[in-house]
Design a protein that fits this description.
The complex is a heterodimer.
Chain A: E1 2-7, E2 13-19, E3 40-42, E4 46-52, H1 54-59, H2 62-71, H3 77-92, E5 96-102, E6 107-108, E7 115-121, E8 127-132
Antiparallel strand pairs in A: 1-2, 3-4, 4-5, 5-6, 7-8
Helix pairs in contact in A: 2-3
Chain B: E1 4-8, H1 20-42, H2 47-59, E2 80-86, E3 91-98, H3 104-114, E4 119-121, H4 122-130, H5 146-160
Helix pairs in contact in B: 1-2, 2-3
C-alpha cells in the first residue's frame, strides 16, 4: 500500500491511498485503502492515509477516528494517531501504520510493525526518508 | 502556510529481506515520490494535486504494493484499489478491483471530480475510466513482478500445508 498527505500554501489538506491489497486474496476482498474514513480521510483540520491489516482498519474507521479525535476531542494530531495505531488497532488484533498531517503542518507517522516505508518534507523544507522503526 | 508533505510505501516491511541494495533502491523511489509531490506544492499547486502526483510516483515503482509491483490474488491477478479526499471540500473518490488502470489514484480522482459518486468498482469503474481523458490503460502483465509472483507461490504452498504464511502478518498488506 502507498499513500500521501499534504498541506498546501493555501492551507488546504488532502489525502490519497493506493494498493494491490493482500497476497493470495480471494472473493473480491477489499481492504481499507479505498474506504473513505478507514484508509483515507481528510477535512479542514486533518488528513490521514493508512496502511495495515485492512479488516481492522475498516472496523476501527481509523482515518476518520484520528481526525475526529483532533476535531471533536481537541487532541494533538500525534496523540490522536498514536492512540489509534498503538492502542486501538493492536487491541483489536490488527497492525499497521498511518501518515497524518494537520492544518498547522504537524506531521506524524506512527506504526506498530517492524517498519514502514515513509518520507516527509517538514515545515522547514527538510526532507526525510526512513524504513525501519530503529 | 508553509507546504508540508508526507508519504508512505506500506508498513509490511520484512526486515530479513531488506538488503543494502534493496534499501537504497527503495529510498531512492521514496525520494522521487517526495520530489514529485513537493514540487507541486512549491510551485503553488494544490494539496490534491500533490498527493495525486506523489502516489502516481509510488504506483510506478515496483517496490511497493500498488500499481506496478502490486501483490497477486489467489487467481494470479492484480486487483487494484485507490482513494483520494480533498479536505477543503470533503469531496472524495475511490475505486476498487480494477485490473487494467495503470494509475488507480488518477481514476479515484476522476470519480471525485467527474462523477456524482464516491466509489466505483470492477468493470464499471474501468468503463467509467475509459470515458475520461488521461486515464491510461495497460495490459494486466504490466503490473507483474517476479518478487510478487514468488510471494504468491509461497503463500499458496504454505496454505496447502496449513502453515502460517512465511511472511507472517505482512501478507495482509502485501
Amino acid at each position: 500500500t502507498v499513500g500521501a498527505v499534504a498541506l498546501d500554501a493555501r492551507g488546504r489538506l488532502a489525502a490519497a491511498t493506493s494498493t494491490g491489497g493482500m497476497t493470495n486474496k480471494r472473493w473480491g476482498r477489499v481492504g481499507d485503502s479505498p474506504v473513505i474514513g478507514a484508509g483515507t480521510y481528510a477535512n479542514a483540520r486533518c488528513a490521514v492515509s493508512a496502511t495495515g491489516w485492512g479488516e481492522f482498519f475498516i472496523r476501527a474507521a481509523v482515518a476518520h477516528d484520528i481526525c475526529a479525535r483532533v476535531e471533536y476531542g481537541r487532541q494533538a494530531l500525534a496523540d490522536a494517531a498514536r492512540t489509534v495505531i498503538m492502542e486501538t488497532i493492536p487491541a483489536l488484533g490488527g497492525d499497521g501504520g498511518v501518515i497524518a498531517i494537520d492544518a498547522q503542518g504537524q506531521v506524524t507517522l506512527p506504526f506498530n510493525t517492524d517498519g514502514m516505508y515513509r518520507g516527509w518534507v517538514d515545515r522547514d523544507g527538510g526532507r526525510h526518508v526512513a524504513i525501519l522503526a530503529d | 502556510t508553509r507546504p508540508v508533505l508526507a508519504i508512505h510505501g506500506g508498513a509490511g516491511v520484512i526486515r530479513s529481506t531488506l538488503t543494502p541494495e534493496i534499501e537504497a533502491s527503495v529510498k531512492a523511489d521514496l525520494r522521487r515520490a517526495l520530489d514529485a509531490g513537493y514540487g507541486v506544492l512549491e510551485a503553488g499547486g494544490s494539496a490534491v494535486d500533490a498527493v495525486a502526483r506523489a502516489v502516481v510516483a509510488l504506483e510506478d515503482s515496483p517496490h511497493f504494493n500498488a500499481g506496478k509491483g502490486a501483490v497477486f490474488t489467489h487467481d494470479g491477478r492484480n486487483e487494484l484499489d485507490a482513494s483520494i479526499m480533498d479536505g477543503s471540500t470533503r469531496r472524495a473518490g475511490a475505486i476498487a478491483g480494477v485490473t487494467r488502470v495503470r494509475n488507480p489514484v488518477l481514476l479515484a480522482r476522476a470519480v471525485m471530480e467527474r462523477s456524482p459518486h464516491v466509489m466505483l468498482i470492477g468493470e464499471g469503474a474501468e468503463a467509467f475510466g475509459r470515458s475520461i481523458e488521461g486515464i491510461d490503460f495497460v495490459e494486466p502483465s504490466y503490473f507483474h513482478t517476479d518478487v510478487r509472483w514468488r510471494q504468491l507461490r509461497e503463500a499458496i504452498e504454505k496454505e496447502s500445508r496449513h502453515e502460517p504464511s512465511a511472511q507472517g502478518r505482512a501478507i495482509h498488506y502485501g
